[in-house]
Amino acid sequence: MKKVIVITFVLLLCLVGVAFAGGNKEAAGSQGTGKPLRAVWCSAMNNESQPFAYKMFKKYMAQYNIEISVLDDQGDAAKQAANVAQAVAANYQWIIVNPTDAAGIVTAFKAAKEARPNIIISTYSSDVPDDAERYRDFFVGMDDATAGAVAANAFIEKFPNGGNIVEIGGQAGHNAQILRHDGFISVMKDHPEFKILDIQNTEHWATDEAQSIMEDFITKYGKKIDAVFVHWDNGATGVISAVQAAGLNGIVIVGVDGCKAGFDQVREGTQYATIMNNFETQSIASLELVSKLLAGEKVASNNYAEMDIVTLANINEFTTPEW
């Protein structure tokens, strides 16, 4: 898990200092009295969660005098890198990115900072590798490694004598996929009573891909499967379809996200638990942090939203998400 550190944003001194001196009217206005700060959301809008996350930004952005546009990459890492370059050329002041390829986007961030040192870059929901943090200003999201570890502990609690688990990962190479897997294995490696029968990642965060992988697992392992760790709740929807079509009962499914599908499936009893990723909380936090930067304040490099573990026992304590 990354350590949360506080960094001093020296690169913003020019922007903030001149703004308060009255020389940068756009930056000064972005703090509430003048022209709104121009920001852009760079993400894969074909990922069901991302339009909802953007909706949360739109819900609150006026309170911070910020206008946020969208550059959609459709899950294409090369397109996302090109969108970052386009945002730099278009003089956006704040670029918000949910990296499609955690390592691949770093070159685009580095080029952006070299071209315009005062530009603010933040990552959302997923982050760049540790050694590339200097190329973005802050991260807001859930701790994906912890999410994987919590999922592992849910299985340990459910199966005190151990069992056989298959893992279906999210989009291969996506930071969330990498960390959720790493967190899961970091716990499971110390529990020899559990056997990980198989692990396979999808090409995209797509329900039908998760279903196809689960169908293959059922063909290969059948009733040996006690449980499934699937990296996202909409993927769990596909897993449930495969399990039901095969007539298998009692397979315990744990997903991550806490989206509407996850809530519905927990209520129906087809999914044991979902680990909730609260995009409303994360969007507000991002707006708060960029406002602090513009005011010359220091902010933490890594900002983790609290995770809620939702099961049938406590689901009525939460508001059902829209996405």
UniProtKB/TrEMBL annotation:
GO terms for cellular component: cell envelope. Belongs to the bacterial solute-binding protein 2 family. It comes from Parasphaerochaeta coccoides (strain ATCC BAA-1237 / DSM 17374 / SPN1). GO terms for molecular function: carbohydrate binding. Residues 52-298 form the Periplasmic binding protein domain. Residues 1-21 form the signal peptide. InterPro entries: Peripla_BP_I, SBP_2_dom. Pfam families: Peripla_BP_4. This is Bifunctional carbohydrate binding and transport protein. Keywords: Signal. It is found in: Cell envelope.
